[in-house]
Design brief:
The complex is a heterodimer of chains A (about 325) and B (about 140). Chain A is an alpha+beta fold and about 325 residues long. Helix content of chain A is about 30%, strand content about 35%. Chain B contains two helices and ten strands, in the order H-E-H-E-E-E-E-E-E-E-E-E. The chains are: A alpha+beta (about 325), B alpha+beta (about 140). At the A-B interface, strand 1, strand 2, strand 4, strand 5 and strand 11 of A face helix 1, strand 2, strand 3, strand 4 and strand 5 of B.
Chain lengths: ~325, ~140
């Protein structure tokens, strides 16, 4: 509307100036007086031709000013149209993003600058007066979980010449993505353990163990979870049992690794994940410590996990 | 040679003192078990102040990470909860007026909560879950 008004104003201004010019010509015409006199009579009054030239010069200046004004008006209209087009494109992108978030098939992804709604559209439950998303935690929903480090521990059991012993640490972190009802469907995750924090309860043995694990060069033990073979999925009891497969990295050496695990849901809706599996230290380039050629640790140890993880949101698209 | 036997002896002694692998049942880290407490129905004077959740159980625990409540003496309250379920956890806040009668807390949202106290702890329970909160000193 603004642009159209400017156009109308411009046309009216042009018409007014043209009419004004015609009026000026009429005035000039009236001021021109043709007289016939003999050459002896001296000229009297101002020079009419000079006045006419001055008026024409004035009119030319006015016309130039009108031209400049029209050019400026055109530029302003173009800028206004561009700005409006940008605003409309932005609104259209935002609408498309909202449609895409609502599950519209084929909807393009939202541009980075477009605002995206972050909350569930229709919370249904309530607790302590807070509105809760109806599917925050559900056994049959693909979710992203984070390990609760304060409630998690990983470790190993080893046999030595003299006795068996265990090493463990709570310095464990990681993320998992899975649907508990369909754990074989694109599970993924990573568990990271601070190797230097493994403790056996004996300082000297810990030092030897850290040397064997090459803690200085490879401070993190890492398990990348890539697949799951389900043996039992009990939705009613909220339990899952099966074999987690992936890649284990110790001392910078990565090998395929599988561990039978059990998953349960505790009273606070946290996953409780437990499991154990044998592991050959030599397969990862770890030399079992030997003391005095007599006291030695067996090559095969049992790796175990006792983790708790909390749902933090929906899984990424690949794990759904 | 003597030193070698000495070290072997020390290791043997240490082994005897610290021998044995962990039992599978002892591997995990159990959540803090609340000591047995004597709970009583809450009275209005028990609620005034700031509370922070220590544990949430039940269905609601799947969506609530943390809850804060401030109950004012004049009957107003405000609360904040870290709610999950969307793309990222987000804080939800609310405010209203509270009433307490016969140990039942009404937050004006149509939900009646059993309110019990033991020392500085406040327990709120409804069919949706149970929250254990502890009084927090203003700093």
């Amino acid at each position: 509307v603004f642009g159209r008004s400017l156009q109308v104003l411009g046309v009216l201004a042009l018409a007014g100036l043209v009419l004004g010019s015609l009026g000026a010509l009429l005035v000039v015409q009236r001021r021109v007086e043709v007289t016939f006199a003999d050459g002896a009579e001296p000229a009297r009054g101002p020079d009419a031709m000079a006045e006419l030239r001055a008026d024409l010069e004035g009119l030319r200046a006015d016309v130039r000013a009108i031209g400049i004004g029209l050019a400026e008006l055109h530029g302003a209209l173009e800028a206004s149209a561009d700005e409006r087009e940008r605003a409309l494109r932005s609104e259209l992108a935002a609408l498309r993003a909202q449609l895409g978030a609502a599950g519209e098939p084929g909807a393009p992804a939202a541009p980075p600058e477009a605002p995206v709604a972050t909350s569930e559209p229709a919370p249904e439950k309530s607790f302590l007066a807070f509105r809760l998303p109806s599917e925050a935690f559900a056994f049959d929903r693909a979710l992203r979980f984070e390990l609760v480090s304060s409630l998690s521990r990983v470790g190993f059991d080893a046999e030595s010449t003299l006795h068996d012993f265990s090493g463990a640490t709570a310095r464990v972190a990681g993320e998992l993505e899975t649907c508990l009802a369909r754990p074989e469907q694109a599970p993924r995750g990573e568990i990271r353990v601070e190797a230097g924090a493994l403790a056996t309860g004996e300082a000297e043995r810990d030092v030897e163990m850290q040397k064997a694990l090459g803690v200085a060069e490879a401070p993190t033990l890492r398990f990348e979870w890539q697949a799951f073979e389900a043996a039992e999925v009990d939705a009613a009891a909220q339990r899952v049992r099966g074999v987690a497969r992936g890649t284990l990295t110790i001392r910078g050496t990565s090998r395929p690794f599988a561990m039978p695990v059990r998953v349960a849901v505790d009273a606070s809706k946290r996953l409780e994940i437990t499991g154990e599996a044998p592991l050959s230290l030599a397969a990862f380039g770890v030399e079992p410590p030997v003391k005095l050629g007599v006291l030695s640790v067996a090559d095969e140890v049992t790796i175990w996990i006792a983790l708790r993880a909390r749902a933090v949101g929906p899984a990424a698209e690949g794990a759904r | 040679m003597k030193a070698g036997f000495g070290l072997a002896g020390a290791l043997l002694a240490a082994a005897c003192a610290r021998g044995g692998a962990l039992e599978p049942a002892a591997r995990g880290v159990a959540p803090v078990v609340e000591e047995a407490r004597t709970w009583r129905p809450a009275e209005a004077r028990d609620l005034t102040g700031l509370f922070e959740s220590r544990a949430i159980e039940g269905e609601a625990a799947g969506a609530l990470w943390k809850v804060y409540y401030h109950f004012a003496v004049n009957g107003s309250y405000t609360g904040a909860a870290l709610v999950i379920g969307g793309a990222q956890p987000e804080f939800q806040t609310l405010a209203g007026r509270w009433t307490l009668a016969d140990g039942v807390l009404d937050l004006g949202q149509g939900e009646r909560l059993a309110a019990r106290v033991a020392g500085d702890e406040l327990e709120l329970e409804s069919p949706g879950g149970r929250a254990r909160l502890v009084r927090v000193a203003l700093q």
